[in-house]
């Protein structure tokens, strides 16, 4: 890709990926260190494209202060339309937010309680700061 479409200035682009184990190895400290290094490297990019529900993407966008492009997950084996969209903020998605209003003693849509909290672009029940 970089050979066919070089940068305008001719600068060299390098891609570094320390964690190539292929699957998560949570209990191994070396694997965890490589994963953290990879998230940090992602955070140093000028632009970021992540897959939906990506922990690496969420951490990288938060560390780097980036509003990424998110590739949406297919549903029922159907490609989403549009296939991607721009995140509304650099904040990560909280996958398991509370949905109970203690004062009202009932379930509520916590994405509508305050204007600075909204549902995530890539997970309808998740919440994020905007």
Automatic annotation (TrEMBL):
Statement: the UniProt record of this protein carries the keyword Glycoprotein: yes
MF (Gene Ontology): galactoside 2-alpha-L-fucosyltransferase activity
Compartment(s) of residence: Golgi apparatus, Golgi stack membrane
The protein's name: Fucosyltransferase
Domain of life: Eukaryota
Job description of the protein: May be involved in cell wall biosynthesis.
Organism field: Brassica cretica (Mustard)
Enzyme class at the top of the EC tree: transferase
The family this protein is said to belong to: Belongs to the glycosyltransferase 37 family.
GO cellular component, one term: Golgi cisterna membrane
GO biological process: cell wall biogenesis; cell wall organization; xyloglucan biosynthetic process
Pfam families, A to Z: XG_FTase
EC number(s) reported in the record: 2.4.1.-
Membrane topology: Single-pass type II membrane protein
Family annotation (InterPro entries): XG_FTase
Keywords (A to Z) from UniProt: Cell wall biogenesis/degradation, Glycoprotein, Glycosyltransferase, Golgi apparatus, Transferase
Main location, first listed in the record: Golgi
């Amino acid at each position: 890709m970089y050979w066919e479409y070089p940068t305008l200035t001719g600068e060299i682009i390098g891609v570094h990926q320390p964690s190539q184990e292929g699957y998560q190895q949570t209990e191994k400290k070396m694997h965890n260190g490589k994963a953290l290094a990879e998230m940090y490297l992602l955070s140093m990019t000028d632009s970021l494209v992540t897959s939906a529900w990506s922990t690496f993407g969420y951490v990288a966008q938060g560390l780097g202060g980036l509003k990424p492009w998110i590739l949406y997950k297919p549903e029922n084996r159907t490609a989403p339309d549009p296939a991607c969209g721009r995140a509304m903020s650099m904040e990560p998605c909280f996958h398991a937010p509370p949905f109970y209003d203690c004062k009202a003693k009932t379930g509520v849509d916590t994405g509508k309680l305050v204007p600075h909290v909204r549902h995530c672009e890539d997970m309808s029940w998740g919440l994020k700061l905007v």
